[in-house]
Specification:
By secondary structure, the chain is mainly α. It folds into two domains: 60 residues, no CATH class; 138 residues, no CATH class. Helix content is 54%, strand content 3%. The chain has eleven helices and two strands. Helix 7 crosses helix 10, helix 9 runs antiparallel to helix 10 and helix 9 packs across helix 11. The longest helix has 34 residues. The N and C termini lie far apart (82 Å).
């Protein structure tokens, strides 16, 4: 943008224009200067000026929308007394982020810090609340909520056989926000990140994202309905829980076969379990 503004001011020297390059740009100043060398035709510069002015106008409109959103959130502010919101480490502001404190505004609307939930950013939480409102009273159960989102399997049976279990197609901004939040958990070291990777290995990436979005939707529903604070769990805790479930399933299967599973501590004998016939 600095280069464009310099062009519109009348600067034509490629070396002078290249000095306005962003510090984070991978291309060197010489490469930028080489790319800017050429003939500047009057009609092209006129078109560039119109595009720049249109962009500035759009930015002004976005600021007005941000102000209206902040005003509406202020009107929706809850009357109940809430503890002070804990401060978070300040992150670099994104270009398209609203110019007001979204996290604090949402906190005083719903009474919870939704950004504490793994994967939910301020913009994702704002999108969800803008679609469903500050509460989930209109949905009788969490199943109704997930069905409305289109994140649960849509079973189609014929003659007792399942022909399809694909999720219902539809355009739902809240569901899209949950999917984007789930997609961002691929490198997360928390329990939801481990769940996403486990589902990806079993079902593939698209189905894994949908399953994780479904789990996120359930967490948000229970948090809003019962005022529950989300407690983050680590990947190690999730893996230990999955191991316990697998061991219980093995023991249950062994009992059905008349066998017994014996657990042994790690580093013991090479065989991890022994089975013996009963009767």
């Amino acid at each position: 943008m600095a280069i464009i503004r310099a062009l519109l001011r009348g600067t034509r020297d490629p070396e002078k224009l290249a000095r306005y390059r962003d510090r984070g740009c991978k291309a060197s100043e010489a490469e930028i200067a080489q790319a800017l060398a050429g003939s500047y035709r009057e009609e092209h510069l006129f078109e560039l000026k119109l595009a720049y002015e249109a962009w500035q106008f759009t930015l002004g409109q976005i600021q007005k929308v941000d102000g209206q959103i902040a005003l509406q959130l202020g009107r929706m502010k809850s009357d109940r007394a809430l503890p002070a919101l804990t401060l978070k480490r300040r992150q670099s502001r994104k270009v398209n982020a609203p110019r007001f404190d979204v996290r604090t505004a949402l906190y005083y609307v719903v009474g919870l810090d939704l950004t504490e939930i793994e994967g939910l950013s301020e913009l994702t939480a704002l999108t969800i609340i803008s679609e469903i409102g500050p509460g989930v009273s209109k949905f009788a159960t969490v199943k109704h909520f997930c069905s409305w989102l289109g994140l649960c399997p849509n079973w189609k049976k014929t003659g007792g056989q399942v022909k399809s279990s694909r999720t219902r197609p539809g355009v739902n901004r809240a569901a899209t926000a949950f999917r984007l939040a789930a997609h961002g958990l691929h490198r997360s070291e928390g329990a939801l990140g481990a769940f996403l990777r486990r589902m990806k290995a079993r079902l593939g990436a698209p189905a894994a994202v949908t399953a994780t979005a479904h789990k996120l939707a359930r967490i948000v529903y229970l948090a809003l309905k019962h005022g529950l604070t989300y407690v983050r769990r680590s990947q190690e805790e999730y893996e230990a829980q999955m191991r316990d479930k697998q061991v219980k399933a093995l023991k249950r299967k062994a009992r059905q076969l008349g066998l017994e599973v014996v657990e042994q501590a790690p580093g013991g004998v090479a065989t991890a379990a022994a089975a013996s016939a009963q009767g």
